[in-house]
Specification:
Length: 292
Amino acid sequence: MSRAFIDSSSVAQAYDNWTNDALLERLWGEHIHLGFYGDPPRRRDFRAAKHDFVHELVRWSALVQLPPGSTVLDVGCGIGGSARILAAHYGLDVLGISISPAQIARAQALTTAELAPRCRFAVMDALDLQLADQSFDAVWSVEACPHMADKQRYADELLRVLKPGGRLAVADWNRRDASVTPMTRLERWVMRQLLDNWAHPEFASIESLQANLQLSPYAAGMVIETGDWSRATLPAWVDSILEGARRPAAVLGLGPRGLLLGLREIPTILLMHWAFATGLMRFGVFRGQKPA
């Protein structure tokens, strides 16, 4: 079945399928984003590196300064791993949203009754947030923008719901700025595979997404700062494959179909590793605070 982007429903279907297959969760745990290994990278347990990623982004974006009880919108929350850390470790009141009903159902199932009052989830389109203006103390979004067909509207929606004084934390897969360094024929082929295999309409560059955020009518005088975590996250690509060898029961427990599902993802993961290792792709992080 093709996973090329058609519209937002194709993204929802892809994530419904990944969630219902259960392979990614069995292999990677409750986080389907990359891990943080430091710069220079150091050897880390794959799942521990994913937890480290969340804590590092909280620190880097200054969300750590938010007082307990502050409200956070997690845009593209997956099955809720980051949202649960934000609620449990930092005392934040988190609403996680995803376009995938299967992800939201699984996020709710994984959230304990004790945590549920401060860690809620809803099915929602990031390009049409059914939320009031200036309603959150922070907005958090990890590896969601590649699925957005309209990057400016994505940026606008993130900032529209952010309160004055609120903080923004975004982490994303970004392409190299092709206007500065055009892609080679091989790179164009690789890029097409990365887009079509995982329901991506297009990748933004760090520079273009920064501009989308900075120039949004809701930016309200914000200064959007960026960082490049390409080196710090690069080992996660190979680790995501090696987890199959480290946890064979996670794959074999799903039967022959699980093995086929895992094998299907390996070529795209290896292409992602190559793209990030060569600079065709970059891992960008973005932060800012609205003037109070």
